[in-house]
Specification:
The chain has 227 residues and is of the alpha/beta class. It has a single domain, classed as Spore Coat Polysaccharide Biosynthesis Protein SpsA, Chain A, CATH 3.90.550. The strands form two sheets. The chain has a seven-stranded mixed beta sheet, with helices on both faces. Strands 2-3 form a two-stranded antiparallel ribbon. The longest helix has 13 residues. One of its GO terms (molecular function) is N-acylneuraminate cytidylyltransferase activity.
Amino acid sequence: MTTAAILPGHGRSTTLPRKIVAPIAGKPLVWWTIRAALESEVIDRVYVSTDDQEVADIALENKCDVLWRTEHFIKQSATIKLDDIVAYHLRTDKIEGDPVVLLQPTSPFRTAKDIKGAMEFYRERMADCVFGAIPQGHFLWVMNATNKGPVAMYRPEARKNRQQLKDWVWENGAIYITRRAIWDKLGQRVIAGDRTFAYMMDKLHSIEIDDQDDLRIANLIAGNGHV
């Protein structure tokens, strides 16, 4: 069975216009993930899901297949779930592949080695799902909608040291590897269960591009030769 990778690459972004083609060290954001996928040696076909001609051209130039999004997904791009888009492509475009690898282009520094390592991790554990992660050493608070009231009930005696959070991980969004049957039956990339595992990654490789500040930081890192 072949292994397929899907890269979601829509051309619209509310936080950073044209983010998907924003330059990092002279290369468009989506190019970094395409390169990592092609060089990983564990992916047979790379598909780019998009609604944008420029993104499609980049995909085709790099020998990837293009999956065009429907008008429904384009109109609902701000609210539609990514899992729904991937499940639609798998079903409608008759993509063959097991497992299915989901690589979000907003993680430009995830490497071919990361993808290959995650795939080996997936196979060794006979997993249902594997997702990229980093240690979670920060404290999370829930704030109300207006940010004017108390954020939460606070119990000082329950506050943990960072060392006590060693079993907590942060899903970094860089890599998802999922058994095809999960997609076909449930239409989602991750499920709860004892066959779902976190694949620990380097913090630098987990950087995610969401806004202009992230883009500046990424260009500084790439410009200094750290990736």
